[in-house]
Design brief:
By secondary structure, this protein is an all-alpha fold. It is built from 63 helices and ten strands. The protein is globular.
Length: 1345
């Protein structure tokens, strides 16, 4: 509500009556509330507006017997304001005043019917009232409520679009918000009767334009209330909807199909719809043109899915006919039709094929392939197999898909065919009983029996020359790997890899399929780990041998190829470990020994192996713990799990037991790997160690802990010399302790705490040891292990930690500050609100000073710590005992001792922080102001207005400080206050703020001018430029005021207005292009850090900020003086955007054509010919096609390039052509330029000597004045200045001896005034000398250049 009212207030002086009238009313009501001492709450606004509306209506009816609804009239303005306020009024208040609202607003509907804005406002008021009413009020209220609801229902088909939209939104809000505990709104039946009546009237009056439009509006409206539709009226709605396609109106028919799809998708209604009768009707209404096909196909899809859910047998029997009707649309030229048909066919494959149909197709395929057939009769055999397959529904689908993939007619639909094949392979995951499967205990899926030939064909397309749809082919092959398994896909008869060369250096078999390795790594899951040990491990060994031979022979490139293949082979290891079906049989001792050796010796394979080991344990733990809570029949669900994954719950538990038995050895190996790698590479190793530690027996955990602590103590007692390759042993052991902490038994936890708080750890001279020690303490406190398991008292632990933190404050090493602050952030929430809050003042200075740390992470942690402290102080029942605060003497107590205790609150905490403003160093004062900024932003809703006002008053004083560090923080505080605090709170301090900021408006150091200008821009938005100007005048009258303050503000305002005009111009250009049918480009979102406080305090938007919508545009930088080239850059950027949009507008629609190769003839009967089709009509650039743009000689045809070429194109002389590039270069290189970090934060450039020199050269060239955009004279002057500067730098040319006497247009020499005579004698010394101070031309005695 506040945001909406803030947008209205500035329009008091607007020339438009419909804007100024509500603004004046709002200001008047707020003044009245302020005079009466009432808070501007929604209830106060509501009561004032409603009372004013009643009086106005009564007065106007008594005076003229009619209501004034013109622009600027009272009634429309009051209705508008009331519609904004009513949604925020508490529901009990609205219920208690429902009769008053209805008696006032409902009679106005017929009187304001001709005013669309007033009608929309009245609809919003009544809708908000109905939503607030309970069931009793809705059913037993006066008839005027139902009459008002009926009025809104009638307006849902109003011819005025905005009124109709508002009425439909109101009905949707009401119907979708039934009063609890009802599931259906009491007015839902009334709405259903109205809708069915409208649709019936439309169906009964064919040919009427108005009726057709009403039907379209109604169908679109009903889609929004489908989930709240009363089931008793569902059949009538379906019947009315199915009657609409008979009217032969394309738009109405499309809306009817869309409504039917929405009904069928609704979870609460789809089971009640007679899907079979709907399907019959849709089949009979099959469209003949592609315009209706997408909506019809969508309806077919949802009908079939609902049909399969209610009656799978009948749906399966109808699948063939519906499939043929849908398949025909894949040949259509329209892309939308093909996409809709693809979606429908994929849905039918996934949901409408029964398991019995799949088994029938498998039996048919098996019977057709029985017996050995002569290879010469292969074609006859294939024909016989297809005929046998067609006897089943699934077989017919497979045959149709196979034929279409080879047909030229379906070339454009190849992506859709491949998507359908993906859905088909996924559905054929069903295991089928076969003799081979029972003998080898290997699961065989129906896909392996039915679609292997299609998978082989797609594998050939993948490597075919010129095939476009490789991504879709990859998806098909990946799905085959996931469903059939790698063993079936990589078998010799399907898609073998073929990457190992033959004997005696022969090349590998063709075609090679190394592209399958990345697909195997991505899609392999729930398969046999034994296949990896049987197939991929020997393969990697052979590849390693080939690599060694290539390296020995000096073939570096070949060795690199084998190395990449080895990495890809082991990249598949993770997929084989995910829900593997033969863990105990495949994870043998030799295989474990191989993995260990690779972890030690092959760093490039370490990541893949570690990911596999983590997946191996995590997945089995998940499967072993599933289906155990709230399940009645665990055995049945375990059986379902085995059917789905091939691993039952019992098998998963056995796998976990097996992994526990090898966990000790695995932990030892991982510890060794962890110790041998660098710190930045330990992340994944630590994660794997953490997972495997979870299954390690407790006694072994204790042994591991004792070993680690023993090595740690030895390392701390006798530090080893630093090794650049590996971190110190002490660091490694502490990192392992952090991983081990969650699994420690009770006794070692207390022992670890005593060691962690000792000086040997947290006060160590080694910064790495300190950092990790603070982390260990933080983990112990965060998990509560000390008082939950070790028997220590929580209060004693906290007191001990606070004491040690205070004692070691002066021994904190560089780099350990962040971890120490993180520990405090964990410690503060553990403090008891009633007895331990006195520790917060003692810890507060470290948090405040932490906001000025060099490390960004440490600063962010300090800000978080301040917020945590403030939240702790806001907890209920908190008390600060001042007598216990360190450094503060106990106060003189009263009789009951209450004066020594203060209730904890946000205000008290801010007071504690503000005490730092009297610090002895500028660094402390600056840090305090920064901390206050963060607290004000976080707790502005909890702090009293008086406290916020005092903070503003206090910090403004520091704007006059001579210390730049203090001023920098004060400017940040002012920026935050101007942006976030309420207008009424900042306005009394506006004069002091403007006066303080103007003192730094010309200071370029520390980017003060940029920041101050941005604050003035935001002030102008919130308070208005007139008020800011007046404050500047008042500031100039002060003794030390800034005299040119108004001039500064006028410059800022002028720049903002230019930016607004440029944005309006660009917006108008986009709208014009939209009318021409081009797509509107979406503006890129502004980069943010993800932290609202960082965005407000450090974000530099200035005049390229568009945070307030229509006021800003990306025109130029606000840094320093805005040079002419910067201003022109804004115009240039706008022009470039317009050119890009025009180019996209004129882009031609791509057409489908046959792509032929100039070298090879096109064989249209070839199996892959159907895919040699290019969907992109762009042609390749031909040699010499740009030659026509140049002048040529008539005889020889040679290109002529001379000065006339440039003269014929005057635009080439315009220096503004490269202004955008100059602006970019300046932003990247100049003093006032900046860049953004990956987090979106602004980083200004450093003021280096090189940048200052470049800036001075630019100022000498372009001058100091601002340049208006679009000023032709200024552009010309810039061009002249640039040419003059270039001429000055040009090296003086040599001239021939006597050349200065040569006549321009005649032969012989001439005599000129001020020159020597041509026949004068010159000494040779004057000719041979270099150019002297007089600037004489250097002569060439030989006369040569």
């Amino acid at each position: 509500m506040d945001e909406a009212l803030d947008k209205i207030r500035p329009h008091v002086k607007s020339a438009l009556l419909n804007q100024s009238a509500p603004a004046k009313l709002l200001v008047a009501v707020e003044s009245t509330l302020q005079e009466q001492g009432q808070e501007p709450t929604p209830v106060a606004y509501y009561a004032s507006f409603l009372a004013t509306l009643q009086e106005t209506v009564k007065r106007e009816e008594s005076s003229s017997n009619e209501i004034n609804i013109d622009e600027g009239a009272m009634v429309p303005s009051l209705l508008y304001l009331l519609s904004l306020v009513v949604p925020h009024v508490p529901h009990p208040v609205l219920r208690s005043n429902s009769s008053t609202i209805l008696d006032t607003v409902a009679p106005l509907f017929p009187l304001i019917a001709t005013s669309a804005p007033a009608v929309r406002s009245a609809i919003g008021i009544v809708a908000s009232l109905i939503v607030s009413l309970d069931n009793h009020h809705l059913t037993s209220s006066s008839p005027i409520l139902r009459q008002s609801y009926a009025t809104i229902l009638d307006l849902t088909i109003d011819p005025r679009p905005k009124v109709r939209k508002r009425a439909q939104e109101a009905i949707t809000e009401i119907i979708n918000s039934p009063p609890p505990p009802l599931q259906i709104h009491p007015y839902a039946k009334q709405t259903a009767d109205f809708v069915i009546g409208i649709l019936g009237a439309v169906a009964g009056s064919p040919g009427q334009q108005q009726g057709t439009e009403m039907g379209i509006w109604t169908c679109a409206f009903v889609k929004d209330i489908v989930d709240s539709w009363p089931p008793s009226h569902l059949d009538q709605l379906v019947e009315a909807t199915l009657s609409l396609p008979t009217l032969s109106s394309p738009y109405l028919t499309s809306q009817a199909y869309a409504l039917l799809s929405a009904l069928l998708r609704s979870p609460s209604l789809s089971d009640s719809i007679p899907a079979q009768s709907v399907l019959n009707t849709l089949i009979s209404y099959a469209p003949s043109h592609h315009t209706l096909a997408p909506s019809w196909l969508d309806a077919i899809e949802n009908t079939m899915v609902a049909f399969a859910r209610t009656d799978s047998g009948s749906c399966s029997s109808r699948l063939s006919a519906v499939w043929e009707a849908t398949w025909a649309w894949l040949e259509n030229e329209d892309v939308g039709c093909r996409k809709a048909a693809e979606s429908a066919l994929c849905a039918m494959v996934r949901y409408c094929i029964a398991d019995s149909d799949i088994l029938s197709a498998v039996e048919a395929a098996a019977s057709s392939s029985a017996g050995n057939v002569d290879p010469s009769k292969k074609a006859k055999k294939a024909s016989h197999a297809n005929a046998a397959l067609k006897t089943s529904t699934v077989g017919a689908i497979i045959v149709k898909l196979d034929e279409s993939l080879h047909a030229v007619a379906y070339a454009k639909a190849t992506p859709s065919l491949l998507s359908i094949l993906v859905a088909l392979i996924s559905r054929l995951r069903l295991p089928v009983p076969t003799a081979a499967a029972s003998a080898s205990s290997k699961r065989v899926t129906a896909a392996e029996a039915l679609v292997v030939h299609l998978i082989i064909y797609v594998g050939g397309l993948k490597i075919a020359k010129g095939f476009e749809y490789r991504e879709q082919a990859d998806e098909v092959l990946g799905t085959a790997i996931r469903v059939l398994g790698p063993r079936a896909v990589l078998s010799d008869g399907v898609l073998p890899l073929n990457i190992i060369p033959g004997s005696e250096g022969k090349p590998p078999p063709q075609p090679g399929r190394a592209f399958l390795l990345p697909l195997l790594a991505q899609y392999t899951t729930n398969t046999e780990l034994g296949f990896f040990t049987e197939y991929f491990v020997p393969l990697s060994e052979k590849l390693f041998e080939l690599k060694i031979k290539a390296e020995e022979a000096g073939r570096v490139n070949e060795a690199k190829v084998w190395e990449v293949l080895i990495a890809q082979v082991w990249g598949c290891f993770k997929g084989f470990c995910e829900a593997c079906t033969d863990l105990k049989e495949a994870f043998t001792t030799p295989f474990a020994r191989l993995i260990t050796n690779l972890l030690y010796t092959q760093p490039s394979l370490r990541t893949s192996i570690l990911q596999g080991l983590r997946t191996l344990l995590v997945v089995n733990l998940t499967l072993s713990q599933s289906l155990t809570s709230g399940m009645d029949d665990d055995s049945e669900l375990s059986q379902m799990q085995e059917q789905a994954f091939g691993v039952s719950k019992e098998q998963a538990q056995e796998n976990v037991t097996f992994l526990k038995s090898v966990s000790g050895n695995m932990i030892s190996v991982l510890f060794n790997v962890f110790s041998s790698v660098a710190s930045e590479e330990r992340g994944l190793v630590g994660e794997v160690v953490k997972v495997w530690m979870g299954v390690l027996p407790p006694n072994e955990v204790k042994n591991v802990y004792n070993k680690i602590t023993h090595m740690l103590n030895d390392a701390l007692a006798k530090p080893s010399p630093p090794n650049p390759n590996t971190p110190p042993v002490s660091h490694t052991m502490l990192d392992l302790l952090l991983i081990l902490l969650p699994h420690l038994p009770h006794q070692p936890t207390a022992q670890l705490f005593e060691q962690a708080v000792s000086d040997k750890w947290i006060a160590s001279n080694d910064a790495g040891v300190q950092k990790r020690s603070w982390r260990v303490l933080g983990r112990l406190l965060e998990a509560g292990l000390l008082w939950k398991e070790s028997g220590m008292k929580k209060e004693d632990v906290i007191e001990r930690v606070v004491k040690r933190v205070s004692e070691t404050g002066e021994k904190v090493a560089q780099g350990a500050q962040k971890d120490r602050i993180d520990l405090l952030a964990i410690l503060v929430p553990l403090l008891s609100p009633s007895s331990q809050l006195h520790h917060i003042p003692a810890l507060l200075p470290e948090a405040v000073l932490g906001t000025k740390e060099v490390s960004e992470k440490a600063r962010n942690s300090a800000f978080d710590l301040l917020v945590v402290m403030g939240q702790k102080m806001c907890e209920t029942g908190g008390v600060v005992k001042r007598g216990l605060v360190e450094g503060i003497a106990a106060m003189e107590l009263d009789g009951d001792g209450s004066s020594n205790e203060v209730a904890a609150s946000a205000e008290e905490f801010v007071t504690m922080v503000a005490a730092g403003l009297v610090g002895s160093t500028p660094h402390m004062i600056s840090a305090t102001i920064t901390a206050l900024s963060r607290l004000l932003f976080e707790f502005k809703d909890s702090l009293p207005a008086s406290t916020q006002s005092e903070l503003v008053t206090t910090v403004v004083v520091f704007l006059s400080s001579n210390n730049r560090e203090i001023v920098k923080s004060a400017i940040g505080f002012v920026k935050l206050a101007v942006i976030t605090l309420p207008v009424s709170l900042v306005q009394p301090h506006l004069t002091e703020l403007v006066a303080g900021l103007l003192k730094w408006a010309h200071d370029h150091k520390n980017h003060f001018k940029t920041k101050v200008v941005h604050i003035f821009e935001r002030m102008g938005r919130r308070f208005g430029w007139d008020e800011i100007m007046q404050c500047a005048d008042d500031a100039a009258e002060q003794e030390d005021g800034v005299e040119d303050g108004r001039k500064v503000l006028e410059g800022v305002k002028k720049r903002k207005e230019r930016a607004k005009k440029a944005k309006a111009k660009a917006s108008a250009a986009r709208e014009e292009e939209d009318e021409d049918g081009s797509d509107d480009e979406q503006a890129a979102p502004r980069a943010t850090t993800g932290d609202a406080f960082q965005d407000v305090l450090y974000g530099s938007d200035s005049d390229h900020d568009d945070s307030d919508g229509d006021e800003d545009t990306p025109v130029a930088s606000s840094s320093k003086n805005v040079k002419g080239r910067r201003s022109i850059a804004g115009s240039s950027r706008v022009g470039q955007q317009q050119q890009q949009q025009q180019a996209s507008k004129n882009a031609k629609r791509s057409e489908t054509r046959i792509r032929a190769d100039d070298d090879d003839p096109m064989d249209l009967l070839h199996a892959g010919a159907s895919h040699a089709v290019a969907s992109d009509g762009k042609r390749r650039r031909q040699p010499g096609q740009d030659a026509a743009h140049f002048k040529t000689e008539n005889d020889s045809g040679r290109i002529i390039i001379d000065d006339d070429t440039f003269k014929s194109n005057p635009k080439s002389l315009d220096p503004s052509d490269d202004v955008a590039g100059q602006a970019y270069r300046e932003q990247m290189t100049s003093i006032d330029g900046f860049t953004r970090t990956p987090n979106g934060e602004v980083k200004f450039h450093k003021n280096t000597k090189k940048r200052r020199a470049e800036e001075a050269a630019a100022e000498a060239l372009y001058g100091e004045g601002d340049v208006e955009m679009g000023d032709g004279d200024t552009i010309a002057s810039l061009a002249a200045a640039a040419a003059q500067a270039k001429a000055k730098k040009k090296k003086t040319e040599r001239v021939a001896l006597g050349g200065e006497f040569k006549a321009k247009g005649a032969g012989g020499d001439v005599k000129r005034k001020g020159q020597q005579d041509p026949y004068a004698y010159l000494p040779l010394s004057s000719v041979g000398k270099k150019k002297g101070p007089g600037g004489h031309v250097k002569y060439n005695i030989t006369g040569k250049r």
